[in-house]
Amino acid sequence: MWDERYKLAGYAYGTEPNDFLRENIAVLPKGKILCLAEGEGRNAVFLAKHGYQVTAVDSSIVGLQKAQNLAIENAVSIECVHADLCEFELGSQQWDGVVSIFCPLLTEQRVAVHTKVAQGLKSSGVFLTEAYTPKQVQFASGGGDCTDTMQSKTSLLREFPTLEFMYLLELEREVVEGSYHTGLASVVQAIGRKRY
Fold it and tell me: Which pTM value belongs to this model?
């Protein structure tokens, strides 16, 4: 599905970074940042332009090729890893920050990935995410109709017991990210720091 979507001309979700990431970039420690399900690279390139060492992982080789092109156009370098997130190993204490923007994994898969995220973060490392909540099925602004791929404050607290959340909020906001994510949306936004 994702290769087909990214084969189309232009960038499916635009070339500008996610608003929540843009507004909160300062909370990410300088260093190594991992972008999950990064697709065509808009967030990874934004972070690289601000001096971060960025690794973008995605299951779509087409998306990652466009991410590399976007990096070249912006005169920055990012590392792209073609992998299924469920099989990708994050290591232990490897990352200063992990960014997850609208990453649609089924609950069982997501719990496993989030466990690896918590292990992969360095002490005091930061996890930043924006995801659709189950209420998003009421809107026609993206995210599909499978509530099992959506998240909430409750699910994030349950799946990240080792994080101290500095910010955790469910809200409705206007999302403008290309042709697939545009309009009023129900989202959960979170910034958590690893306690140890």
Answer: 0.96
